[in-house]
Amino acid sequence: PGYNQTRRPQVHFSPAVNFMNDPNGLFYYNGTYHMYYQYNPTGITAGNQHWGHATSDDLYHWHNQPIALSPESPDEGIFSGSAVVDVDNTSGFFGNQSSSNPGIVAIYTLNTPSKETQNIAYSTDGGYTFTKYSGNPVIDINSNQFRDPKVIWHADTKKWVMAVALPTQFSVVFYTSSDLKNWKKASTFSHHGWLGNQFECPNLVEVPVHNSQQQNSGETKWVLVVSVNPGAPQGGSFTQFFPGEFDGTDFTPEDDAARWVDFGKDNYAMQFFYGTENKTLGLGWASNWQYTNIVPTSPWRSAMTLPRQYALWNDPVLSWQFISNPTDMSTIMNKNLFSGKVTKSKNIKLGDGSGAYYFDIYVSQDQGQATQRANFTFISSSTKEELRMGLLMDNGPSFFIDRSGTKGFDYPLFTDKFATIQYGGIGGWHVYGVLDKMILETFLNEGEQSATTTYFSNGVLDKFSISLDTGLSATVNVTALKSGWD
Ligand code: FRU
Q1: Looking at residue 418, which CATH number applies to its domain?
Q2: Which residues contact 141 (CB under 8 A, 6 or more apart)?
Q3: pTM of the full predicted structure?
Q4: What is the complex's ipTM, to 2 decimals?
Q5: Is the beta carbon of 50 within 6 A of some atom in ligand 1?
Q6: 292: domain range?
Q7: What band does 414 get if pLDDT is binned at 50, 70 and 90?
Q8: Is residue 167 left, alpha or beta, with left meaning phi > 0 and alpha meaning psi from -120 to 50?
Q9: Residue 7 included in any domain
Q10: Do both 410 and 276 map to the same domain?
């Protein structure tokens, strides 16, 4: 069917056909990024879970690969999990393999009608085909709520560490291993942050700490990311993070606060790439379990978020922030559509190229007023639909996103409006991001806050309209993006 349907994202990954959810097994080796994902090869709603697979050199141009892991019978599912590069052959699966072509081990949950267990499979061809380990399962606690193993290498203790969820006990359990086959329980992280109804997809990652939004301090800190579904603050599913310390066995959070990674409603089950050295790269599933099975796209459903690079910053006002920014987009930058200063208002014509755009706006407050507003609106000239964003200076600045003006999907739980609780500007307000056919991804202040918002318009959004109240001006750049599918 190709990738040119009206609502098909052009710079976000989506499967050619059928239903996708969580990213799985993200790893980078030898110039190639591998992404697996929860995939139903036989339907356009969730179920029949396999691991789909795609590869990329730049995280924007993806090559679809054959399905990597399939269940043995129709009542089983290969649920979410992770992958590692076993360079030292700790698992013993890769005896005769050359060190320039190390083996890959996938660690996943096998979901059966009676229980969920942790299983492994190994690949001798760099992650394209896998053999399931004959000694599976590697962890079985006789539970039907035990899933989503994410494994990392902990250099200080020279051990593999797995974070895995006990969803209905609001717990993440840490296990350690030296061979990926034998796992020993190390500790339990339980009842922290926002509980919702279930904990899923835990990820433990070491992240660079910044001195300000932009400046890397050279230090690192650990972050535990936990996805919650259902029961998120804005409804359905969301992802929260805990900054803290990890000593190889126990994770100790800084505090008990609940912090979200995204103020939109469409960023779930976030996972980080294994093997990206000192960069923390990751992406999430750009959807929400409340409506993912009924959104109006065909012949596929769901997309991933943009690939993002992460850092931590302890903002003096907002406390710990998980800074995220799109990874280098130079391979998809196309023609510049507008670049210049705006006072009062400006309409920018969109429509060139793939239908995906990068926007970058720096708002300055030249003259303060009691209330001021800056509106950034994507408009369809044929249907008059509007996708709105804006900055409100009223009792302190805040930022909103409003998808109620797009009319292609009418569902009570498809929440209309999102806003930051507080939007701290640094001498001005930086708003940038990507509009991509059905996804708006917005970043504020060098990625200190971000929102992923799906939208479903009937008409093509072909105009970007900026209007500024007196006292505000903006430097604006809008650039068309190339399709990642070309
Ligand atoms: C999260 C999740 C995981 C599970 C997978 C099944 O979205 O529910 O907990 O492994 O999806 O597809």
Answers
A1: 2.60.120.560
A2: none
A3: 0.97
A4: 0.98
A5: no
A6: 18-326
A7: very high
A8: alpha
A9: no
A10: no
